[in-house]
């Protein structure tokens, strides 16, 4: 069995581990159809995701009319309340995700999450999907006071996943947008971009160290990683 030269593998959540676009779209639509805006299909929400719920709402409002600060302040609590109650109605892990997590854990790797989603959504979402216990740490966009691409949340993810007690923890981050790949680079760690997430445009342009098109490719890609 080929050696994997990492101790901790970190993952982005939305668009990487889990396709959350159906529940995010439902929450946005709940907030904006009440003021006469049209509903978005899940596919149309994907490019709005990546920098937290406020920016997702701003992008959705701006794409269908005006987007004033008052409108955002008025609609954001409605969106967040709805999402908190409906985290995992449509959301599912991407194909092969759970098997890949099992395979990595069986190889002794620690798994962790760093998402720009607020922690109060990220943790119960993973619990409701029955996956939270697989992760040694789950850091949200509001856990440490800054979000990716700032390196601080990725560093906190590593430290809380046991890296704080390791001499030189070897870490890699897997994500779907520039926030993830730039965040990994800013934290000084390697990265893999997934091509099946919420990114619009060419995944190669993210500058990740490798790209995977399916979770089945994750373990072989790590096994081939130069040590
Ligand atoms: O909720 C968001 O905007 C982004 O979440 P992610 O960092 O897990 O992709
Ligand atoms: Mg993402």
Whole-number mean pLDDT: 97
Count up the helices. 9
Shape type: elongated
Cα-to-Cα separation, first versus last residue: 14 Å
Enter the CATH topology name of the largest domain.
Answer: Rossmann fold
Strand order across the largest sheet: 5-4-1-6-7-8
The percent range for strand residues is: 5-15%
Rg for CA atoms: 17 Å
Q: Give the strand tally.
A: 8
Please give the largest β-sheet. Answer: 6 strands, parallel
Q: What's the name of the CATH homologous superfamily of the largest domain?
A: HAD superfamily/HAD-like
SSE pattern: EEHHHHEHEHEHEHEEH
Helical fraction: 25-40%
Bound molecules: 2-phosphoglycolic acid, magnesium ion
- What would CATH call the architecture of the largest domain? 3-Layer(aba) Sandwich
Tally of individual domains: 2
The SS-based structural class is alpha/beta
Query: Which regions have little confidence, pLDDT < 50, spanning 5+ residues?
Result: none
Structure description:
The radius of gyration is 17 Å and the shape is elongated. The strands form two sheets. The protein has a six-stranded parallel beta sheet. A two-stranded antiparallel ribbon has the order 2-3. The chain folds into two domains: 8-19 and 91-223, HAD superfamily/HAD-like (Rossmann fold), CATH 3.40.50.1000; 21-85, DNA polymerase, domain 1 (Orthogonal Bundle), CATH 1.10.150. It has helices at 21-33, 42-45, 53-62, 69-85, 97-106, 119-128, 151-160, 178-187, 218-223, and strands spanning 8-11, 18-19, 92-93, 110-114, 137-139, 171-175, 190-194, 210-212. Helices cover 40% and strands 13% of the residues. The mean pLDDT is 97. It is an alpha/beta fold and 227 residues long. Helix 6 links the parallel strand 4 and strand 5. It is built from nine helices and eight strands. Helix 1 (21-33) packs across helix 4, helix 3 packs across helix 4 (69-85) and helix 7 crosses helix 8 (178-187). The structure holds 2-phosphoglycolic acid and magnesium ion. Magnesium ion binds next to loops. Pfam families: HAD_2 (PF13419). One of its GO terms (molecular function) is phosphoglycolate phosphatase activity.
């Amino acid at each position: 069995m080929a050696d994997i030269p990492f101790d901790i593998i970190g993952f982005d959540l939305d668009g990487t581990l889990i396709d959350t676009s159906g529940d995010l779209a439902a929450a946005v639509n709940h907030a904006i159809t009440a003021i006469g805006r049209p509903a978005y299909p899940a596919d149309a929400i994907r490019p709005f995701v990546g920098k937290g719920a406020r920016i997702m709402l701003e992008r959705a409002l701006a794409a269908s009319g005006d987007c004033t600060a008052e409108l955002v302040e008025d609609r954001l609590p409605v969106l967040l309340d709805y999402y908190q109650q409906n985290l995992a109605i449509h959301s599912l892990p991407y194909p092969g995700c759970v098997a890949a997590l099992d395979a990595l854990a069986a190889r002794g790797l620690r798994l962790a999450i760093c998402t720009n989603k607020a922690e109060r959504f990220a943790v119960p979402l993973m619990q409701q999907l029955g996956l939270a216990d697989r992760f040694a740490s789950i850091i949200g966009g509001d856990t440490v006071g800054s979000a990716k691409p700032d390196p601080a949340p990725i560093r906190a993810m590593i430290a809380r996943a046991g890296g704080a007690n390791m001499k030189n923890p070897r870490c890699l981050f897997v994500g779907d947008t520039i926030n993830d790949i730039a965040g990994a680079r800013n934290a000084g760690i390697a990265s893999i971009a997934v091509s099946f997430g919420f990114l619009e445009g060419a995944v190669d342009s993210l500058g990740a160290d490798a790209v995977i098109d399916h979770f089945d490719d994750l373990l072989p890609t790590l096994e081939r990683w130069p040590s």
